[in-house]
Amino acid sequence: MQVLVTGATGFLGTHIVRRLLARGDSVRCLVRQPNSLVEGLDVELVSAPLVPRDRGEQDDLLRAVDGCEGIFHVAGVFDVGPDGHRAMRDVHVFGTRALCEAAVRTGARRLVLCSSSITVGFGSRAAPGDEQTPLDATAAYGATGPLRSYHDTKRQGELLATGWPGLEVIVVNPDYVVGAYDVKPTSGQLILAMARHFVPFWPRGGKCFIDAGDCAQAHLAAMDRGVPGRRYLLGNDNLSYREFMGIIAEVTGQRPPVAPLPDLALRLAARAGELGQRVDPHRFAGTDRRVLMSMQQERYRSGARARAELGMPATPLRESVQAAWRWFREQGRC
Predict the structure, then answer these.
(1) Cis peptide bond prior to 257, omega within 30° of 0
(2) pLDDT tens digits, residue range 42-79?
(3) pTM of this prediction?
(4) Structural domain boundaries in the chain
(5) Residue of 6, 158, 227, 232 with fewest CB within 10 Å of its CB?
(6) Which fold has domain 2-180+209-237+301-314?
(7) How many angstroms separate the CA atoms of 41 and 37, rounded?
């Protein structure tokens, strides 16, 4: 099968590419610039803008999609900077629209859209949210800010793609992904932070975690047998941050946190960030109050549908952390 992958130079994208190659698919990667995650792989690298600005760029994107039976749209961005909403909208909405148009025009059959768990409702560990759980975005993420922009643009991309005439679209919604090749890093930032120095506090909340390889395998299964128009939450282990950080401490040989993080400390950090953003919006963008406070909430979700319909595997999370830690050490990041 000939497939196109966007976001192949990213954390999750490279896992998907490697599994596609392992099963014998022909893989074409839409990239801006190659990096170490794709160099040396038996893939075709093509350069074309995800958001065409003129007819010439539209033709470039059409040529990138032409001949592909399926598309994995994995490219995504979470940008907390002043222009973050525009950047997220470009990739999640305009980029999705451009790919859908190109897919239909070139005869591509199916598109797997990698969205995010941020568009899926959440609950307690006893009653986790699933794909049908209502979500009050304003209550969860605020009326403005980076989390709300991320939610809105991801959800807009989902609705746009699943309603596209003539194209079978399956949406997958990964939660907290852990594993090797976390080049930025994203989720691995916490692993690196704990490995480098003692972190005394744990956030009071919790998340649903999934191994990066399991998440990638679910993407492939969604392409093969996912139900068009359906969403699949990709997550396996509902753990508190205290439990997750305990695993990291054991794997890295560091001391585990000793106390819960006080809400007051986060509020003070958020207030300091607000003042700092007036001086340097980019440097202090990550101190957004909603971003910080989200870690104090239990946001548990269920991946039961993906396990039942896609056969999503469930690697023990300790192995995922070990894989991430091993890769970071091999890269000299520690």
Answers:
(1) no
(2) 999 999 999 999 999 999 999 999 999 999 999 999 98
(3) 0.94
(4) 2-180+209-237+301-314
(5) 227
(6) Rossmann fold (3.40.50)
(7) 8
